[in-house]
């Protein structure tokens, strides 16, 4: 059982590392496909990139940012792990 928990934590950490960490420059932005970044310490927050800058957003009450699906989701679906690991 302990091995399964460790494996799940490794998978969650790997998923958390597979996302952009910085906003694209204003010239590189695609308004039809906005970039969202997870908040490094708070599961209920995320950043929306606009004009090369990140702007903090808050999920509705009771929801967490889902890195994999790119939207606010139920905590059991988002499987949020914070703080995010550094690389």
Automatic annotation (TrEMBL):
Keywords: Chitin-binding, Disulfide bond, Glycoprotein, Repeat, Signal
Chitin-binding type-2 domain span: 20-82
Record-level Gene Ontology MF annotations: chitin binding
Pfam families assigned to the protein according to its UniProt record, in alphabetical order: CBM_14
Any GO CC annotation of this UniProt entry: extracellular region
Signal peptide: 1-16
Classification via Gene3D superfamilies: Chitin binding domain (2.170.140.10)
InterPro entries linked to this entry: Chitin-bd_dom, Chitin-bd_dom_sf, Chitin_bind-dev_reg
Protein name (Swiss-Prot/TrEMBL): Chitin-binding type-2 domain-containing protein
Organism of this sequence: Culex quinquefasciatus
């Amino acid at each position: 059982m302990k091995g399964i928990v460790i494996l799940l934590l490794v998978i969650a950490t790997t998923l958390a590392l597979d996302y952009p960490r910085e906003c694209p420059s204003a010239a590189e932005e695609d308004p039809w496909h906005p970039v969202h970044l997870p908040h490094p310490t708070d599961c209920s927050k995320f950043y929306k990139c606009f004009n090369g800058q990140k702007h903090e957003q808050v999920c509705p009450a009771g929801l967490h940012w889902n890195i994999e699906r790119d939207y606010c989701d139920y905590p059991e679906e988002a499987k949020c792990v914070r703080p995010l690991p550094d690389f």
